[in-house]
Amino acid sequence: MPVQDTVRAELNVGASWRDNPDFVGVGTVTFLCIGVALRALQYFSNTSQWLDEVMLSWSVVHRNLPELLTTPLAYGQAAPPGILAAERIAVVALGPSDLALRLFPFLCSIVALLAGFRLARWKLSPLGQLAFVALLAVAAPLILYSGQAKQYSVDVAVASIILLAVTTSLPAGISRRRAWVLALVGFTAVWFSTPAPLMLCGASMALLWPLARSGVTRQEYLWRRLPVVVTWTVASMASPDRRPRQCLGGDEGDPAGLLD
At a CB cut-off of 8 Å and minimum separation 6, what does 170 contact? Predict the structure, then answer.
């Protein structure tokens, strides 16, 4: 066999696995399962809380829900009200344990992984899907935050959901139903994620950008896209104050004895 034919055959063999949808699909699902398993392992390891977790958890455990949502948190902590409510409900239902406090962030870390998987399938090539899901599944910070009673896993989940909602809506056009879904996603996001208004700002530019292109009807802009952007803007402006809270007086007790 000529040398050129041999090299060409080797290149074809090397590229065949990348073009094989079954191989790439199995690999992507495998990494997805690995990501879920790593996050579950981190969560069920039930490691000791670090200082910021303890200071935030003190307010969640020792205050009722109305007080938790309406008064500044102890020890200079700040968190979106949606997360505080979810963690308080978990504590009431399951008891004041570390696993209960970390349950909602853990579930959000799984949601973020699934949303990333869905986004990769929507926008990337088969090989890109495999690479994206693999990186997302084994990223050490994302695994670490899945087992902490802080808002970082929730931020990733909210960002993934916003990105997925916008990217899947633009190619199909903004129907009335999609407009309602986008408005609801943005309105909910600002109550669960501190950087959500910034994410919605970028998403708004993506929705309005086609206005500068030819062929975009005014009706779609006025009655579909613009109300979504207005809803996001109002929700972002109406969301709670996100500045760090000042420490309260010395009647809060010792946070180190949170779960004693």
Answer: 206, 207, 210
CB burial of residue 220 (10 Å; 0-12, 13-18, 19+): middle
SS3 31: helix
Pairwise CA distance, residues 235 & 184, whole Å: 10
Determine the Cα–Cα distance for residues 156 and 31; give it in Å rounded to an integer: 18
Biggest CA–CA distance in the chain, Å, is 86
pLDDT at residue 227 greater than cutoff 50: yes
pTM as predicted: 0.81
- State how far the Cα of 121 lies from the Cα of 190, in Å rounded to an integer: 26
Q: Distances in Å between the alpha carbon of 46 and those of 26, 42, 151, 238, 239?
A: 31, 7, 17, 36, 32
> Can you read off the two tokens belonging to residue 130?
């495999």
**CB-based contact 194:242 (threshold 8 Å):** yes
> 175 pLDDT band (50/70/90 cuts)?
confident
Residue 246 burial (10 A CB sphere; 0-12, 13-18, 19+): exposed
Instruction: Compute how many other C-beta atoms are within 10 angstroms of the C-beta atom of residue 91.
Output: 18
